[in-house]
Amino acid sequence: MQSRKIKPEKSAALYCRLSRDDDIQGESNSIANQKKILLKYAKDHGIENVEVYVDDGFSGTNFNRPDFKRMMEDIENALVDTVIVKDLSRFGRNYLEVGYYLEEYFPSNDIRFIAVNDNVDSSLGEDDFTPFRNIMNEWYAKDISRKVKSAHRAKALAGEPLSKPVYGYIRNPMDKKHWIIDPEAAAVVKKIYSLALSGWGTDQIARYLESEKILTPTAYWLSKGIVIPGRKDTTLDPYYWGNTTVKGILEKREYMGDVVNFKSYTKSYKNKKRYRNDESDMLIIENVHEPIIDRATWQAVRTLRNQSKGRRRSPKSGIINPFSGVMYCADCGGKMRFRHYDSNGLEYFECSNYKGKGTRGICETTHRIRCDALDMVVKEELRKLTSVYENSKEEFCRFLEKEYESTCGQNKENLEKRIRTLESRNEQIDILYKKIYEDNCFGKISDEMFSVMSKDYEKEKKDNTELLISLNDELRREKDGKAMKERFMDTVSYYIDVKELTPLVVSELIERIEVFHATGTGNDKHQRIIIHYNFIGSCELPEGDDANEIKIDTRQGMSISYSALAV
């Protein structure tokens, strides 16, 4: 006997929706109240086979809701023939999309639609007033969005953080608008900054935290019973730190005690996707809560990270060389790349534009300098610098002012020029992006070509934006000459007895080091470098003696001397 497939009985979908904005209407729109109304309607009208679909906490301005999509799948699978909602606003607040479902999709799929409180029942024919209700529902959503934004802006201007406390802070039980330090998590934040100051990269720090069995921020919050919306459970490995998590911690201004609002935005009340704001568009209010990291340390870490981007780490220590990011070729102006030679274990910096070894560089000579020689020369120069400070602070202060006045004007002009160039390029990228988008829409370029070109433009604009942030920070420091002078003097006094050049020491005192090609041969070989200090640039230190030379034997019969000269 052949088996006969029995078609299941179709059911009525009772759809309930509630967004956070609807909470202001109280219990009338609660999920429980909607269910009660819909179940009673189904019972009173003899509808026995029902299925309840609930989207709690979802906006009606878009239809990307879990249970709504499940209901649509059931309709496509011929499991549902009726959709019942409390009123049209529960179904949605987007006039165009609601109209599409009510006027096109449901009729073509023989779906009966009922809105109980609005007296809408598609089986009784069209209701001419329904489109006007949909328009008013959308207007309501727009009005609520405007009011919510206005309320948020008022809170933000008052210094109230709009986001949840970042890792390391908790809400003050006595004042929910204020953050206080969470000692356990704050200790981890301090450790992360300490390692970063030592030259550790984000991946190194992440692996260290994992080896020490330190809970990730999400796992830590879950262990404390704190639920963070949008955060996924990390029960698979609560100790696995991603380098992006470490990077985020090293970039948060909140650790200096600042409140940072408007980090992201939406383009429309209908589009709930968040887009990150540029730092210039964020609202930053300083010194609102107790800091975990002082400003000098936070800025030092930021400077170190900007300098060390894309730099190789030493195979010996596993950390970034202290001079990475500040080394430049004196002839072509290109950055110098860190090198390690396995044959002799020596470490060098050499010009990245060297025209050799099959490359297409523009620099005719290598401009190579040994790291050990560089370390000794810079230490000697810093000894002379701190010696001037120790002999007479007043004379040192006058020396700083004189050198700053001779260098700051040109430096500020160069910074402003670079900033204008980058901003202009970003504007051009926006125009070009729109053009290739239109060309793609009209079939002038293929989807593959659009994908490649758009990614290139996006990467270039991202890199430009990161550089703009760094340049604007530098420009602000240049304009605040007095504060820079005092900070440089404090830094010099702090490092008077420095024994080791760390990435922090170099970044605090030195802006850049220019290396010339070595001249001479044999024991008469000589190489010159120029050290550009923060605040004062390159200068002849007023110590009175000639620049000392450092001489190193490279191999039998060969030696090279190094000296640091301003001119």
* Helical coverage, percent range: 40-55%
> Segments where pLDDT lies below 50 for 5+ residues?
1-7
- What structural class results from the helix and strand content? alpha/beta
Rounded average pLDDT: 78
| Fraction in beta strands | 15-25%
Please summarize the sheet with the most strands: 5 strands, mixed
Please work out how many helical segments DSSP would assign.
15
The termini sit apart by 103 Å
Number of separate structural domains: 3
Q: How many E-type strands?
A: 19
Oligomeric state of this protein: single chain
Q: What is the global morphology?
A: elongated
Order of strands in the sheet with most strands: 2-1-3-4-5
Radius of gyration: 33 Å
Structural description of this entry:
- This protein has 567 residues and is of the alpha/beta class.
- It has 3 domains: 11-152, Resolvase, N-terminal catalytic domain (Rossmann fold), CATH 3.40.50; 169-308, Hect, E3 ligase catalytic domain fold; 327-564, no CATH class.
- It has helices spanning 31-44, 66-76, 88-91, 95-108, 130-157, 183-197, 202-211, 217-223, 243-251, 295-308, 371-391, 393-441, 447-479, 481-494, 503-509, and strands at 11-18, 50-56, 80-85, 112-115, 120-121, 169-172, 175-181, 259-261, 264-265, 275-276, 283-285, 327-329, 336-340, 347-351, 369-370, 510-515, 525-533, 550-555, 558-564.
- Strands 2-1-3-4-5 form a 5-stranded mixed beta sheet, with helices on both faces.
- α7 packs across α9, α11 packs across α12 and α12 (393-441) packs antiparallel against α13 (447-479).
- The radius of gyration is 33 Å and the shape is elongated.
- The chain starts with 10 loop residues before the first strand and ends with a strand.
- The relative contact order is 0.06.
- The model is unreliable at 1-7 (pLDDT under 50).
